[in-house]
Amino acid sequence: MTNPLVSWVAELAAELGVDSSVVDRELLLDVARDAAHGVARPAAPLTTFLVGLAAGLNGGSAEAVEDAAATAQRLATTRTPPGAGS
Q1: Is residue 23 part of a domain?
Q2: Cα(80)–Cα(39) distance, rounded to whole angstroms?
Q3: Helices 4-16 + 25-38 axis angle, to 10
Q4: Are 40 and 83 spatial neighbours (Cβ–Cβ below 8 Å)?
């Protein structure tokens, strides 16, 4: 049985003209999770969009994706969680 997420990413990458070898699904899902939990749920898609945009503007390599993702994860995981009193 084909994983629908794998086939969706492959199909979308092909249609967008993106090299699917630089699409690290697990990394992007981790970034989305960290943004959703560390910021707010709606931050997940916005964060992954910004990671992709930053990576594209910085050459579009797998390394550019990893660097942008690391920055997003660092910021999201060091924030005070939503609703936490100080």
Answers
A1: yes
A2: 8
A3: 100
A4: no
Its pTM stands at: 0.87
Rounded Cα gap, residues 28 and 24, in angstroms = 6
Q: What letter would DSSP give residue 39?
A: T
Q: Give 18-62 pLDDT, tens digit per residue.
A: 998 889 999 999 999 999 999 999 999 999 999 999 999 999 999
Residue 7 has pLDDT above 60, yes or no: yes
Structure tokens at 79: 């924030």
34 part of a folded domain = yes
Task: Report the domain count for the chain.
Answer: 1
Which residues constitute the domain of residue 47? 18-77
CA distances from 30 to 26, 34, 60, 62 (A): 6, 6, 19, 16
